[in-house]
Amino acid sequence: MAGTMQPVYERILMDAAQIAAVVDSLAERIDRSYAACEPLLALVVLEGARRFADDLLSRMQHPVEPVFISTSSYHGGTHSAGIVKIVIPPALGKAIGGRHILLIDDIYDTGLTLSSLAEQIKQFAPASLKTCVLLEKKTPHKKPLRVDFLGFTVEDTFVVGYGLDYRNQYRDLPFIAALRKDLTTG
Ligand code: IMP
Ligand code: MG
Asked: How far is the CA of 3 from the centre of ligand 1 (A)?
């Protein structure tokens, strides 16, 4: 209806200032934990973590080489299909050997994405592997894992904004918000 622009979100969970403060403190913590180490290889899970990783890496002092990898387990819905379509290609595997790896993702939900990636990374014998996640959902994780650097914990609801999408929409919102339930089809 013309003139009645209803927001796509129910409520804002984290505004831009809160996100910036958390990203700053994550960058500091990560810098401190790698002080004496060689340059990091950051594996960034696309698309959702791109914006977070761009902000995080630009705030870090420690030298980082970013590599972007693609995965999708949602297939356009709001519940994880439990299918993690990601295989680390051999060339990237070779680059992982002997390096300090920081795995960066947007959300730890079921844990399937991160645990699958972590298992694959370990097979390429990195010097170390740590994980950094912007949001952990309060949900029973199917594959529990340790998150070394965590931004926020959120309730078990579908969230959008700050790089997070629903069907490739709403990534541009400068804050993180709970998506309106009537916009999702399950
Ligand atoms: P997993 O269920 O922990 O494997 O998470 C899979 C991926 O689903 C995450 O990396 C996100 O990209 C995406 N995802 C999970 N929950 C949400 C959400 O609430 N909004 C947008 N994307 C989500
Ligand atoms: Mg993702």
From this structure: 33
